[in-house]
Each structure stands twice: as structure tokens, then as C-alpha cells.
From TrEMBL:
Secretion signal span: none
Swiss-Prot/TrEMBL keywords: Hydrolase, Membrane, Transmembrane, Transmembrane helix
Keyword Membrane in record: yes
Xref: Pfam families: YdjM (PF04307)
Protein name (record): Metal-dependent hydrolase
Annotated transmembrane regions: 31-49, 96-115, 121-140, 149-166, 186-213, 241-263
Top-level taxon of the source organism: Bacteria
The organism of origin for this protein: Actinacidiphila polyblastidii
GO molecular function: hydrolase activity
Length: 264
């Protein structure tokens, strides 16, 4: 899928988590619901950091271009080192390491740890990166024509404001993890979720996605998981814009209302 569909599905998935959490008696305060959805929308672009033409690789200027080169090299090396007998040779790392459940879990855990031990600046940094990505993903066309600096400013100010909102008692920094010293531990969850949703989105396109690496499937360690071929579509095709995008809006909207307790 393309950026906007990835981001929308990420946000919708977090709203769905919010609805489930409300049903399980852990309702999210609205700032957790909103900020989590934005983080997940941003995180749903992150796995494509292994591709130089992807939104995320261009979003932070030379910094993300460098990160993209490094990630691509690490992914390619990991692919070669763990390749099964039937995995084909590859010339680059796109859609390998960063498109696995293990990667999603590692990045999420890393961000949770950073938020818990790194204090306010770590939270701000995580928010900034994901707000910029959320703007790039959700406001695709608008972000494309405006300058990078403008998007960074928007990301920085919204990160600052949202951190202040979350910081107020009862507003969400202590959601789910209530013990002392666990503030913002939940921040890794929308990051894991966004990455997983990205992989699922890629897996329903023609090429599939090696989510389950390194579990061997049919003698491949990088088996491209996905539904039967007739259920797959090309990234950027009409299915994405005419079917999936409206569906994400519907599911996301209904879930958000459920998460806020409108139906109960
Ligand atoms: Zn991808």
C-alpha cells in the first residue's frame, strides 16, 4: 500500500485497540487515544525506511537518507546471513528485516524503554518523529507541496503541545501501566501496532511480506506471507483508494466512538 493507506490503517488499528481496551475496563483517556492514533499512523510508515524512495527516507532530510542507507545495509546483511535454501538472492534489503514482527517488537520495546528512562526529552523526540511521519502520511498531498521545514515545525509544536496535555494527571501518560516509574510505557504499543499493520498492508499486495521471519516456511526463512494470490492487489490500485481507504475510515471512526464510550 502507499503512505496514506498505511497511515490510515495504523490510526484505525489504534482506535480499535482503544475500543477493546474500553471493553476490558482500561479505557483510554482521550489524549492517549488521539496521540496513540497519530503515533501509530506515523509508525505505519517506518518499516519502509529500507527503501530510498519511501516517504520516511525523505522526511528528515540528510539524517533519514543516511539512516535509510544504514538500515538497508543491515537488512541486506541479515537477509544473506539467515537465508534459507529456497530464499532467492536479493540485491538490497527492501521488505526484509524491517518488515518482520521481531523488528516491530524491538523498535516498540526500545521506544518504551527510552520514554521510561529517558524522561521528557525522549518522549518529545519520539512524539516529534511520529508526528512528522503522521503529517506526511495522513496529509500526503499537502505535505508533498509544502516545505520540509514547515512539516518539521508542525511536528515539533504538536509534539510539545501533546506532551503537555498527556502530562496532566489523568490525561494518559499513566494509561495501562500505572505503577510509579512506568509513565509513558504504553508509547511503544502504537509503534509496534503501526509496524505490524504496515506489514499486513504489504502482505495483501502482490509481493507479500516476511512477517514471520525467521520461522521456516516451505524451506524459506523469509517466506512472503500473504493471502491466496487472487485476493492480492497492486500497491496504489483502485482497491486501495475505493475499498480499503473508506473501510479504514469507517472502522476507525466507529472504533474511536466505541473507545470514548459513546455506545455504552
Ligand atoms: Zn513496506
Amino acid at each position: 500500500m502507499m503512505g496514506p493507506a498505511h497511515s490510515l490503517s495504523g490510526a484505525a488499528a489504534w482506535f480499535a485497540v482503544g475500543a477493546v481496551a474500553a471493553g476490558l475496563d482500561h479505557p483510554m483517556p482521550w489524549p492517549t487515544l488521539v496521540v496513540g492514533a497519530l503515533i501509530s499512523a506515523g509508525a505505519a510508515l517506518a518499516p519502509d525506511l529500507d527503501h530510498h524512495a519511501a516517504t520516511i527516507s525523505r522526511s528528515f532530510g540528510p539524517l533519514s537518507r543516511l539512516a535509510c542507507k544504514v538500515i538497508d545495509a543491515i537488512a541486506h546483511a541479515t537477509y544473506n546471513a539467515t537465508r534459507g535454501k529456497r530464499d532467492p538472492r536479493r540485491s538490497g534489503g527492501h521488505r526484509t528485516l524491517t518488515h518482520t514482527a521481531i523488528w516491530a517488537a524491538l523498535v516498540g520495546a526500545g521506544c518504551s524503554a527510552a520514554a521510561v528512562y529517558g524522561g521528557r526529552w525522549a518522549v518529545l523526540a519520539i512524539l516529534f518523529v511520529h508526528m512528522v511521519l503522521a503529517v506526511e502520511g495522513l496529509l500526503w498531498r499537502q505535505a508533498r507541496v509544502s516545505s520540509d521545514v514547515l512539516v518539521w515545525l508542525l511536528g515539533a509544536t504538536s509534539a510539545w503541545v501533546l506532551a503537555d496535555v498527556l502530562d496532566d494527571p489523568g490525561n494518559g501518560k499513566e494509561w495501562l501501566f500505572t505503577e510509579h516509574g512506568q509513565h509513558y510505557m504504553w508509547i511503544g504499543l502504537p509503534i509496534v501496532l503501526g509496524a505490524i499493520v504496515h506489514c499486513i498492508g504489504d502482505s495483501i499486495t502482490v509481493s507479500g511480506c516476511p512477517i514471520l521471519w525467521p520461522i521456516p516456511i516451505r524451506r524459506k526463512r523469509w517466506y512472503p506471507v500473504g493471502p491466496p494470490k487472487f485476493m492480492r492487489f497492486r500497491a496504489g490500485s483502485w482497491v486501495e483508494y475505493k475499498v480499503l481507504t473508506p473501510a479504514f475510515f469507517l472502522v476507525g471512526g466507529a472504533s474511536a466512538l466505541g473507545a470514548l464510550g459513546v455506545f455504552s
